[in-house]
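Sanity check

After download, print the first record. It should look like this:
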Amino acid sequence: MLNIQGREPWASQVIARVNARLEKFFDERLAHARTLSPRAPELVSSIAELTMRGGKRLRPLVIYAGFRACTPLVGERDLPSIVTLGAAIELLQSYLLIQDDWMDNDEQRRGGPSTFAAMQRQFKDPQLGASLTILASDVAMGYAIELLHETRFPSGRRGEALSAFQDMHLEVVFGQQLDLLAHEDVTLTQHLKTGSYTMRGPMRLGALLADASDEQLQALMRFAQPLGIAFQLRDDVLGTFGDPAVTGKPVGHDLREGKYTALIAEARNLMSAEDRARLLTVLGDRSAALPEVQAVIRSLETSGARARVEATLAARLSEARRALMAASCLVPEGVGMLLELLDRTALRER
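Expected structure tokens:
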């Protein structure tokens, strides 16, 4: 019963189990919150609503594939811990998304209102709404740590796992700082902000759960490093050129938000002076008219900026694939799962 097997794809089974674990966890936390304060369930419900609304559940898949790349066995003890750890990472993401939407003043997330927007509308007070949003994110982080501590790591690996989680958290925070400051080294921002908790951190945690050898851990990091950057590059392309009906973001979302993406970094070197001036006028202007935004999007294409970013994306994917295929210390079945994740990163539309 605990094995991931049968004809249903492994990824679908992992996602279903993580969703079930999260639903059970939120039911328990809501019941506990009611014993603490009559208003506490409001914060818990806001986290649950965002977390269960959707999301790719990519990080639990990375944990599972990283685990399976280090050991061919999944036993009675292993799968519950994998699922609990996956739920912990999803709550870490909710904490980060709640704060990110507040910092960017984003009103939508996963096809619905962001936690920040929902709080603003409910309480009709910008300061109070922002304060409650931060409290909700604090609770989400606390829940992530709670589930991390419930995960049964092999003897002697718990300390490494806690350190890996802390490293992942710090890196994404420092990456967010660079993102807010529009730091010119976009690759460093991508490495810290996205690569840390999308690929490197979850993969390391999955490997530690499997009691991986140093050789296996190093091999997985050589794979995860370029794949994490590729994931962010795909995000950059979708944030400007993606279908709003699929991504859940309006046309030119990243432009209007003033995000200093890889596309912008390339465009500033490739665009004509006239196009660059138009770009700088639209960048960060949430009230920019749609025709102006569409003109900048076209210039990002015609200047060659999109082609440059997509070429870099392809190169990073190739680098990740080569690193994985060269890793003779990894288990073939798990390697196949990691290759599936690589394709998910390359081909995703949201």
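If your output differs, re-run the checksum step. Summary of this record's structure: The CA atoms of residues 191 and 290 lie 32 Å apart.
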